[in-house]
Amino acid sequence: MIYTVTFSPAIDYTMSLEGKINIGDINRSKSENYTVGGKGINVSILLNNLGTKNVALGFVGGFTGQYIINYLKDKKVKTDFCNIEGNSRINVKLNGKAKETAINANGPKISDQNLKQLLDKIAFNIKDNDTLILAGNVPKNVDTNVYELILEKLKNKRIYIIVDSTKQFLLNTLKYKPFLIKPNLEELEELFDEKVKTKEDIKSHVEKLKKLGARNVLVSCGAEGAYLFSEDNQTFYSATYKGKVVSTVGSGDSMIAGFIDNYLKNKDYKQALEFSIACGAATAFDKEIANKSAILELLERGQKWK
């Protein structure tokens, strides 16, 4: 079984504008859309769209939390959330001409008792050969070692660990030798406070991460595609697909979902990377997380950038 963990699921309220966003003035939208997000939630939705069983874990609260539960139920995503006080967050996404602006809320407070409930749930449910995906950062009131606390509970189990997070949240997990991590270029720079300008820069940063414990490193480069540096010291590259970008929200999460779904079925790094790229692009070309037919359409007929 695959489990995803999202500490702060959210309702993403996206408004699209005809022209550019005018700060300090009234802006009129041409369309609005409500979806449910949060990095782990996005992974769960895409896995479900691919027909792969998974369980979404995390915290929800209030009327917005109930909306999240109902939304995922309608999409037939299995959930096992912990209920907390307060309302789950609402993120606002503004799509103006050629630019996308996001305002992400902090979300409700997670108490020590709430956290213990999640840790106990994870320790009880996850078995050998399962997959755990830790995605995103956590609310400000939760310690940056929280992913470390989760993995400490599981250190004697043989599982696939995937981490898609930043800075200390990611670094704290590396001693547990995660199967896959997925930094983008900006996150690589933040991790080591060094600029990334060339492929050699990427490789140098990745080697540091592997020395710290990462087994496989998937580096997403936006419109420039992605690199996979595998634990058997191979390097793979894939360009991304041509198409009209509707929203980049959830694109990286879709890459994670596509990679682990394909790898667990085929145990082939290059094939998993190619499928991952298609999943990320298909989501970028849609207003929601991509469905299976859109992904397969890209794989069969899509044109890539050279």
Summarize the structure.
The protein is an alpha/beta fold and 306 residues long. The protein contains 10 helices and 14 strands. Helices cover 37% and strands 23% of the residues.
Describe the structure.
With 306 residues, the chain is α/β, with parallel strands linked by helices. The protein has one domain: 3-Layer(aba) Sandwich (UDP-N-acetylmuramoyl-L-alanine:D-glutamate ligase). It has ten helices and 14 strands. The chain has helices at residues 39-49, 62-74, 112-125, 146-153, 167-171, 185-192, 199-211, 251-266, 269-284, 292-301, and strands at residues 2-6, 10-17, 29-37, 54-60, 78-79, 82-83, 89-96, 99-103, 131-135, 160-164, 180-181, 216-220, 226-229, 235-238. The strands form two sheets. Strands 1, 4, 5, 6, 9, 10, 11, 12, 13 and 14 form a ten-stranded mixed sheet that branches. The longest helix is centred in the last third of the chain and has 16 residues, at 251-266. It is globular. The mean pLDDT is 93.
